[in-house]
From TrEMBL:
<keyword id="KW-1133">Transmembrane helix</keyword>
<feature type="transmembrane region" description="Helical">
    <location>
        <begin position="317"/>
        <end position="340"/>
    </location>
</feature>
<dbReference type="InterPro" id="IPR002810">
    <property type="entry name" value="NfeD-like_C"/>
</dbReference>
<feature type="transmembrane region" description="Helical">
    <location>
        <begin position="352"/>
        <end position="376"/>
    </location>
</feature>
<dbReference type="InterPro" id="IPR056739">
    <property type="entry name" value="NfeD_membrane"/>
</dbReference>
<feature type="domain" description="NfeD-like C-terminal">
    <location>
        <begin position="388"/>
        <end position="443"/>
    </location>
</feature>
<dbReference type="GO" id="GO:0016020">
    <property type="term" value="C:membrane"/>
</dbReference>
<keyword id="KW-0472">Membrane</keyword>
<dbReference type="Pfam" id="PF24961">
    <property type="entry name" value="NfeD_membrane"/>
</dbReference>
<feature type="domain" description="NfeD integral membrane">
    <location>
        <begin position="249"/>
        <end position="369"/>
    </location>
</feature>
<keyword id="KW-0812">Transmembrane</keyword>
<dbReference type="InterPro" id="IPR052165">
    <property type="entry name" value="Membrane_assoc_protease"/>
</dbReference>
<protein>
    <submittedName>
        <fullName>Nodulation protein NfeD</fullName>
    </submittedName>
</protein>
<feature type="domain" description="NfeD1b N-terminal">
    <location>
        <begin position="48"/>
        <end position="199"/>
    </location>
</feature>
<dbReference type="Pfam" id="PF25145">
    <property type="entry name" value="NfeD1b_N"/>
</dbReference>
<dbReference type="InterPro" id="IPR056738">
    <property type="entry name" value="NfeD1b_N"/>
</dbReference>
<feature type="transmembrane region" description="Helical">
    <location>
        <begin position="279"/>
        <end position="311"/>
    </location>
</feature>
């Protein structure tokens, strides 16, 4: 009776646990997810890939929304337009969040915000200042864009504001007056939709809001952030690298140091360190200017790696070009293939391919390292060319040496002279110890060159 009671109690406990766990297990596949990504730095061609990767990740997982925390001073106009177009094609709402406190969404960043489904700002941030410029003059002053370009961007930013129902007048002043707004000013001017202290506050305040532009395939979406799970998407390794070198100041410094390295290396031949480092820095600086995408940048680095390996084969540097080639090959392979659907391969494949890239680079480096070792050993040998190679060789007397005569060595007939002056008969073996013009100086095989016969 007692055993039956224990069994019943155990069964009841198991059923209770299953009843408690079942709702969470059943609910997990339908858990609503909001992805939170981060973008910092100048907007370049690489930024298009980064934004696209964030959006595709959210789309692939059927997220409720994608929040992109942004902090940018602006950047390339063409890249900005491509990012906006990608946001418009997104199948999930994209919320641009100017965050953290102190962050800015200036110039191209403002356009991207106005092209998004919802805009939020954290306290102590700013948005605006969109005057298009061509760059900076030698004295540091701003070179403003021509009127034609300026008018184009005015029309473009106004169309973004009109499409989303935001303040068109303020959007125009972002360019014409270089207007910048605080979060409170932007909210009052109907430029943004809300001010939030953090992501949790943003989700709470945005819950129930309707997107300012339609989501592809869904139209205008009413956001539902009740009981959502927050998943963060971090920048990839290549994103971090490009973020640093794409800073205009860093890119400019890299290009100048690279050029100086090349010049110094060519003027002072030696171990090729200056020109090797200079070539790498120059290429990184050019890539950092942002005129290439990840794929093009990867190809450039791979081509540079091949040039380093060829240089090692033609002018051995005892491993310097080999190391430079291996490093640039690994970086080029990672940038070329990327790690998401918007690149050449799937993310799952990339983890394996990345290992293959590193292994191949190491194997190539080892191959050239062994080749360099062989070159070093060969250079340490005593130089022997032409007739000098015959020293130490053994031949046979075909015409008596008394003290001169003829010997056959390596199938060739040579005039020879006995070093000791003694007579050496036909058929005897002799060894070459010296070369004088076209005459080989020999001794009887087995004798030391300095030995003298007793009379």
């Amino acid at each position: 009776m007692m055993m039956r009671t224990k069994s019943t109690a155990r069964l009841g406990l198991i059923l209770l646990i299953i009843a408690l766990l079942l709702p969470s297990v059943l609910a997990s596949p339908n858990q609503k997810v909001v992805y939170v990504a981060k973008f910092e730095g100048v907007i370049t061609s690489y930024s298009v890939d980064q934004f696209s990767r964030y959006i595709e990740t959210a789309e692939r997982n059927n997220a409720e929304a994608l929040i992109i925390e942004i902090d940018t001073p602006g950047g390339n106009g063409q890249a900005m337009q491509e990012i906006i177009q990608r946001i418009k094609e997104s199948k999930v709402p994209v919320i641009i969040y100017v965050y953290p406190p102190g962050a800015i969404a200036a110039s191209a960043g403002t356009y991207i915000a106005l092209g998004s489904h919802l805009i939020a700002m954290a306290p102590s941030t700013s948005i605006g200042a969109c005057e298009p410029i061509l760059g900076y003059s030698s004295n540091g002053s701003i070179v403003k864009a021509p009127e034609k370009i300026r008018n184009f961007y005015i029309a473009y930013i106004k169309s973004l504001a009109e499409e989303s129902g935001r303040n068109v007048t303020a959007a125009e002043k972002f360019i014409t007056e270089d207007l910048s707004l605080t979060p409170e000013e932007a909210l009052r001017a109907n430029v943004i939709e809300l001010v939030a202290n953090d992501v949790s506050d943003l989700l709470k305040k945005a819950n129930g809001m309707k997107t300012k532009i339609p989501v592809k395939g869904k139209g205008y979406v009413t956001l539902n952030f009740t009981d959502v799970k927050i998943v963060e998407i971090g920048p990839s390794f290549k994103d971090v690298i490009v973020q640093y070198i794409s800073d205009p100041t860093v890119a400019y410094i890299l290009i100048n140091i690279g050029m100086l390295g090349l010049i110094f290396g060519f003027l002072t031949p030696g171990w090729h360190v200056p020109e090797t480092v200079g070539a790498i820095l120059l290429v990184l600086g050019i890539i950092g200017l942002g005129y290439f995408g990840y794929n093009a940048a990867g190809l450039i680095l791979l081509i540079l790696a091949i040039l380093f390996f060829i240089a090692e084969a033609l002018t051995p540097t005892f491993g310097l070009f080999t190391v430079a080639g291996a490093v640039t090959m690994i970086l080029g392979g990672i940038l070329l293939f990327g790690g998401g659907n918007e690149y050449l391969i799937q993310r799952s494949t990339f983890s394996t391919l990345r290992l293959v890239i590193i292994v191949i680079a190491v194997l190539l480096a080892l191959f050239f390292a062994f080749g360099v070792s062989a070159v070093i050993r060969d250079r340490r040998r005593k130089a022997q060319t032409g007739k000098e190679e015959l020293i130490g060789e053994v031949g046979q007397v075909v015409q008596e040496l008394n003290p001169e005569g003829m010997i056959r060595i390596r199938g060739e007939l040579w005039r020879a002279e006995s070093k000791t002056g003694e007579r050496i008969g036909v058929g005897e073996k002799v060894r070459v110890v010296e070369v004088r013009g076209l005459t080989l100086i020999v001794v009887r095989e087995g004798e030391h060159p300095d030995e003298k016969k007793e009379v």
